[in-house]
């Protein structure tokens, strides 16, 4: 049976099929018996056939799908002590005052020696509240032994000796991918500057934990757990027996594959720290930090940048206390780096400028 009205068909590839109703064909002198014999490219469809064909050609809109998160396969987070490492790279450049020269010599793939000369000044607070600059000059000798196991375990020994009598050393031994030990020690003529710290690092598939033991009856523990693929949460606690002080802190870290990282830390000692790093491009990153000390009723905000050029790296920061700092590393040749440092504290009128050279990788 044919319909009483005209039905317009749809486009199928390059072929256009037009549906014509029976009443119009009769007016044109075409008998119904010949209607079914009309060939391509023009054919005749009933209303039901035309609607079915039109419906089949209409593209079904894509339904957005969300990836199913497997909470049993979450990534391993960073270590708790490295929670703000991206922000610290921009906000805490290694600024210095005076002249610095560093030399690194590799004797083989595992052993290397380092020499460092520094001539500048250090800030010593006075009773009047002003900072007094005292000129100093030091020489530092270092030895590094770094090995790596078949499964990627790191084992290294690093030692430093300064001309003023101070000595420091660090060692690390990875038993496996899930267990490692670290030891840090510093010896000085003043007893207050001598310290030792031992760490035990535990790692799981989606968590990190650390136990700390130090002199002056120091005990600490921290834990960081991945909650989602981009969010990790954890906490820490410590006890300092010599001063009868203790504290508990909580932290959260949100990181994306694009390089954007946000962190939050709060502790019972009265400190609140917020950081955010935005990776604008492969060569540029912006960072910000907000620090609030509830006990001292002080708050500081810092903004920094980290820009990588073809032959140099430029880092800097400015904070609400009026301190502006900039640190430039210019590669003159393979293994030769020129250093420029500047830090201006306008509120206290303390200005620091330095330059140096680093040789060796």
Q: Which structural class should the secondary elements be placed in?
A: mainly beta
Which residue ranges are poorly predicted, with pLDDT under 50 across at least 5 consecutive positions?
1-28, 30-45
Coarse shape: globular
Mean pLDDT, all residues: 84
User: How many runs of DSSP E, i.e. beta strands?
Assistant: 21
C-alpha-based Rg, rounded: 35 Å
Q: What share of residues is helical?
A: under 10%
Strand content: over 45%
Explain the overall architecture.
The protein has 361 residues and is mostly beta strands. Helices cover 8% and strands 54% of the residues. The protein has helices at 22-27, 32-35, 47-57, 85-91, and strands at 11-12, 15-16, 98-106, 111-125, 131-148, 154-162, 167-174, 179-187, 195-203, 207-214, 218-226, 231-240, 245-255, 261-267, 271-279, 284-293, 298-308, 312-319, 323-333, 336-345, 350-359. The strands form two sheets. It has a 19-stranded mixed beta barrel. Strands 1-2 form a two-stranded antiparallel ribbon. A hairpin with a 3-residue loop joins β17 and β18. Residues 1-28 and 30-45 have low confidence and may be disordered.
How would you describe this structure in keywords?
mainly beta, 21 strands, 4 helices, 361 residues, two-stranded antiparallel ribbon, 19-stranded mixed beta barrel
Short note summarizing the structure:
With 361 residues, the chain is mainly beta.
Write the layout of secondary structure elements.
Layout: E1 11-12, E2 15-16, H1 22-27, H2 32-35, H3 47-57, H4 85-91, E3 98-106, E4 111-125, E5 131-148, E6 154-162, E7 167-174, E8 179-187, E9 195-203, E10 207-214, E11 218-226, E12 231-240, E13 245-255, E14 261-267, E15 271-279, E16 284-293, E17 298-308, E18 312-319, E19 323-333, E20 336-345, E21 350-359
Parallel strand pairs: 3-21
Antiparallel strand pairs: 1-2, 3-4, 4-5, 5-6, 6-7, 7-8, 8-9, 9-10, 10-11, 11-12, 12-13, 13-14, 14-15, 15-16, 16-17, 17-18, 18-19, 19-20, 20-21
């Amino acid at each position: 049976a044919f319909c009483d009205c005209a039905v317009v068909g749809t486009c199928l590839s390059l072929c256009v099929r037009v549906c014509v109703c029976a009443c119009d064909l009769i007016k044109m002198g075409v008998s119904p018996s010949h209607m079914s014999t009309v060939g391509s490219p023009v054919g005749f469809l009933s209303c039901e056939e035309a609607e079915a064909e039109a419906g089949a050609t209409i593209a079904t809109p894509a339904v957005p799908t969300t990836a199913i998160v497997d909470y049993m396969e979450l990534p391993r987070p960073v270590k708790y002590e490295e929670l703000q490492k991206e922000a610290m790279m921009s906000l805490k450049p290694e600024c210095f005052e005076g002249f610095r020269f560093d030399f690194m010599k590799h004797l083989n793939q595992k052993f290397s020696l380092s020499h460092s000369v520094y001539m500048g000044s250090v800030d010593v607070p006075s009773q009047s509240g002003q900072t007094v600059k005292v000129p100093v000059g030091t020489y530092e000798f270092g030895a590094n032994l770094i090995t790596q196991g078949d499964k990627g375990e790191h084992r290294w020994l690093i030692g430093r000796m300064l001309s003023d009598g101070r000595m420091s050393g660090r060692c690390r031994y990875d038993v496996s991918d899930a267990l490692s030990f670290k030891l840090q020690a510093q010896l000085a003529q003043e007893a207050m500057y001598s310290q030792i710290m031992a760490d035990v690092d535990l790692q799981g598939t989606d968590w990190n934990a650390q136990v700390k033991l130090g002199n002056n009856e120091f005990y600490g523990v921290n834990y960081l757990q991945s909650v989602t693929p981009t969010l990790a949460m954890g906490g820490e606690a410590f006890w300092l027996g010599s001063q009868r002080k203790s504290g508990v802190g909580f932290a959260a870290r949100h990181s994306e594959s694009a390089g954007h990282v946000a962190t939050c830390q709060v502790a019972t000692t009265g400190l609140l720290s917020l950081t955010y790093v935005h990776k604008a491009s492969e060569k540029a990153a912006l960072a910000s930090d907000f620090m609030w000390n509830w006990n001292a009723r002080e708050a500081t905000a810092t903004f920094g940048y980290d820009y990588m050029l073809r032959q140099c790296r430029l880092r800097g920061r400015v904070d609400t206390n009026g301190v502006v700092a900039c640190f430039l590393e210019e590669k003159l040749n393979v293994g030769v780096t020129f250093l420029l440092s500047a830090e201006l504290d306008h509120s206290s009128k303390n200005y620091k400028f330095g330059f140096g050279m680093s040789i060796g990788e």
